[in-house]
Amino acid sequence: MTRVELRGLRKDFGRVTVVPDLDLTIDAGEFVALVGPSGCGKSTVLRMVAGLEPVTRGSITFDGRDVSYSDPKERNVAMVFQSYALYPHMTVAKNMSFNLELAGRTADEIERAVQNAASLLRLEDLLDRKPNQLSGGQRQRVAMGRAMVRNPALFLFDEPLSNLDAQLRVKMRSEIKLLHRKLNITTIYVTHDQIEAMTLADKIVVLNDGRIEQVGRPMELYARPANRFVAEFIGSPAMNMIPASLCDRKLVFSGGEMGYAYPPEERQQEVILGLRPEHLSLSDQPTGITGNVTLVEPTGAQTSLLLDVGGSSVVAVLDGTVTAEVDREVFLAIDPANVHLFDPRDGKRLPQECVF
Amino acid sequence: MTAIAPAWGRPLSRTGWLPYLLVAPVVLMLGGLLVWPWVVGLWTSMTSLRIGHWGQEQFIGLSNYIDVLGSHAFWQSLRVTGLFAVLCVASEMSLGLGLALLLNRKLPGRNIFRTLFIIPFMVPTVVCGLIWRQLLEVRGVANYLLSFIGLGPASWLSSSDSALASLLLIDIWQTTPQVVILVFAALQIVPKDVLEAARIDGATAWQTFWRVTFPIIRPYLVVAMLIRTIELLQVLDIVMVATQGGPANATMVLHLHAYRETFISGFLGYGTAVAYVLGFIVVLVSIAIVRWIGGTQSDEARA
After folding, report:
1. 10 Å Cβ neighbour count for A142?
2. Are A80 and A148 in contact (CB under 8 A)?
3. Distance from C-alpha of B16 to C-alpha of B24, rounded to nearest angstrom
4. Measured distance CA(A324)–CA(A315) in Å, rounded
5. In whole angstroms, what is the distance from residue B177 CA to residue B168 CA?
6. Measured between beta carbons, which residues in chain A are less than 8 angstroms from residue B106?
7. ipTM at complex level
8. Model pTM?
9. Which has the higher per-residue pLDDT, B4 or B280?
10. From CA A320, how far away is CA A302, in angstroms rounded?
11. Per-domain boundaries in chain A
12. Does residue A34 contact residue A190 with C-beta atoms inside 8 Å?
């Protein structure tokens, strides 16, 4: 269990700054997901923690020990790569024991560690195979086994599930989570998939352009996104963003209006109204949003509607029992407790308590 | 199955001649260009054919081969060829591997060096031999430069002590780039993240090379080695241009020996027999290389 601190971390590639100035604390035993769109610098941060990418400025400490400039070897981290990066010429057992061998462990110790990891990951029957004789999911498990055998200070995952098919991804996701519960090793997990981040992490770090947009527990990020970027990134389908204006104690937008109690100090004229698709529900009364159905997508448990609301489109995720017809006008009720307001200029969250 | 079988069988039997017709041109061409000369050569090697004595040859069975194996000149040549091939392959492979690893790093001016390294490879062997002959002549550039540090002059190509070493130098200069290209190409297939995984696993640069990079590129090294060995066992051009086998047969390689027996001395049958023995040796050595060095790799891949 290692506590990791990143202080003023910066990374330049030539004249391009990928990560300008990053501060982050990861508690011992914590599972942290770095999430963000591609090119946001999340993998670069991970590679700096691993020691594969030299730090331009700032510091990385493990339990107070500065490792900013040490070799990966001295950091005792284990990493699972997106491509798994298994040694193609070695058997599964050799792949897993390579680290222990280099560390000069005895044959007995190695044997025990490999058997242990293999039984935990159900790889016992595959120990003599070569990576090219394994399926994608098996390779993924070998990569995890290779990381596990050495009992590392830190687990690093670089998009480990993105090369698997959808079903296997869900399965491996829960395996990773169970494994973390069992081993309780500090973990940094990089992904672009917000669902992976939500389901796995104790703490999510949303990155954009090398900057932290928000750090928090998954449900915190979902319930109170600090800004528009986080609001749109977390949650699927993405939050509906509707331009609205405040006038005469009302929040007016194309397709509807809501009551708004002016806070005495705040007199914002234009705002962005954020509504999660799953927080909208059908209503018989003409309240909330009025729009025309343009698409109905039943998925079984839920049905999503695509509405045309005064020229812009709004997505609503409704119960699967709901029946809706295309080109009909429908009313969607809005729960004022689940409304988000953002400043259109800088995207920052605005207090939404005055909406009713 | 029953429905499919006749459907398969009928068109095949009806047009049974068609596949043969289609491959016939290639078979005839291969037969005419490869097998026929080979058969004629084999027959020639079993006759007493001599240049200028056309039509007087007699079939003498294996006696040319027996003579070859009993000839001192043949064994001497074989020794020279073997020594030359082993030394060349060993130095070209290790030098080629080293240079390829160097060129594979992010060094300044890497692209210029990559281009420069290809140049010797592009120079025709005969031109290369002539260049080096001028450089290594008693009054050549090499001796001129050595005179500044008080050495020489040495008769590089005309002394039996240094002639083979000089040939070695020329061949290394000319064909190491070939090995460099092959090894360099092989290095490109080693995935970057596998090397990073090795770093994470705590391997030093040395351990990463020997335990990860080398096993991955090994099959390509075997191919490079095979190509060089075959070429070197049959070496002729560079020796002919630079030393003509001399001095005192110190550089008389087998191929040149066969050539001289055949076209200079005129013993067409005997010379051909020498050439066939050489061919036989090349085949044996090639099989040995693939079996011993390449074989373990394919075992590992299969296991």
Report:
1. 27
2. no
3. 13
4. 13
5. 15
6. none
7. 0.84
8. 0.80
9. B280
10. 4
11. 4-233, 240-350
12. yes
CATH of the domain at B273: 1.10.3720.10
- Other C-beta atoms closer than 10 Å to the C-beta of B207 total 15
Q: A137-141, B129-133, B225-229: which has the minimum mean pLDDT?
A: B129-133
Alpha-carbon distance values, B19 to A119, A265, B87, B256 (Å): 55, 91, 49, 44
Which CATH superfamily does the domain covering A4-233 fall into? P-loop containing nucleotide triphosphate hydrolases (3.40.50.300)
Terminal Cα-to-Cα distance of chain A (whole angstroms):
47
pLDDT at A18: 92
What is the CATH number assigned to the segment(s) A240-350?
2.40.50.140
Length of chain A in terms of residues written: 356
Could you identify the residue written with the tokens 């699967």?
A320
With a CB cutoff of 8 Å and minimum separation 6, the contacts of A193 are A35, A161, A162
Record: contact B196-A77, CB cut-off 8 A: no
Residue-number span of the structural domain to which B154 is assigned? 63-302
Residue B198, chain A, CB below 8 Å: the answer is yes
Residues of chain B found within 8 Å of residue A150, distances taken between Cβ atoms: 201
What total of structural domains would you count in chain B?
1
The whole-number average pLDDT for the span A220-230 is 93
**Interchain proximity B199–A103, CB inside 8 Å:** no
pLDDT score of B9: 47
CA distance B56 to B216: 58
B190 in contact with A, Cβ within 8 Å:
no
Average pLDDT for B1-15:
50
